[in-house]
Amino acid sequence: MGKILVAGELNVDLVMSGLPHSPILGRELIGTGFQQVLGSSSAITAARLSMLGADVDFYGLVGGDDFGVFVLRQLADFGVHTGHIQTVDTPTGVTIALTYSQDRALLTYPGTIDQYAGQDLTSDVLRPYTHLHVGSFFLQTSLQPKLACIFEQARALGLTTSLDIGWDPTETWFDNPYLAPTLAHTDYFLPNEDEVTALAGGDYMPQRVAVHVAGALIVKRGSRGAAAYQANGEEIASVPSLPVTVIDTTGAGDAFNAGFIYATKILNHALPEALRFAAACGAQAVTQLGGATNAPAAESIFALLNQV
């Protein structure tokens, strides 16, 4: 079984649930739940990949603080190899997640998130792996300028690559000079429907996005399932969502990412089967509070698919 490398941002999530409505300035709301959990798109993907059964290494940074210790301990508990994560003086990043039944609002202090530059991802480091995944592209301002070269180098060594971007807080989208060059060396681009709409200029037109991707555009559509497009914009596969009771959508897209990578790289599934497995991973995630909470083994995902 090939090894998978996940590189990028690390932070904690402070999750508040059970809020009656969005916050209003000058007023106080009472939530019914609160947890400190592993955060960051890349870390949640790595944790869920490992729990599914993949052999996963992580490259990135944490601060020398309690949050950094928490992140390292959590990753190790999920079975992710943390020996290549460096500890620096910058405080570990923090995201405050306000969760509702169908969506969430995120407030982020970057800390170490925007400090990792990927300088340790050399050819010698990349060579033993079969796949490289990076999440939260728009938050990783130090990594952005180097990522196209890193992905190009990885693919030249025989690795496949995948990218998730997250919401762009600056809302520059394709005006970011580093996104299109990175997508030109990306095998699987994994945005959600809202991100595709923003990338396409305000309308959901995946064809406008797919043309930039070296491989396949995989769109996560929440309750509408998922769809895949090739570079000419043609839809090549789609799957519905699974009927589950939604508790918290935090990390659902990252769980989908993990399921898709596991299905394609470990199970060697064809694209439609990989989408089904990924959708089941995302469905399981929304039944839990926190992105990596109760991350399942692959057998549990197969059981969920059999049930529906």
UniProtKB/TrEMBL annotation:
- Per the record, the domain of life is Bacteria
What Pfam families does its record include? PfkB
Query: Taking every annotated instance into account, which residue ranges of this chain make up the domain Carbohydrate kinase PfkB?
Result: 30-297
Protein name in the entry = Carbohydrate kinase family protein
GO MF annotations for this entry? Answer: kinase activity
Q: Which SUPFAM superfamilies match?
A: Ribokinase-like
Question: Which controlled-vocabulary keywords does the entry list?
Answer: Kinase, Transferase
**Is Transferase included in the keywords of this UniProt record?**
yes
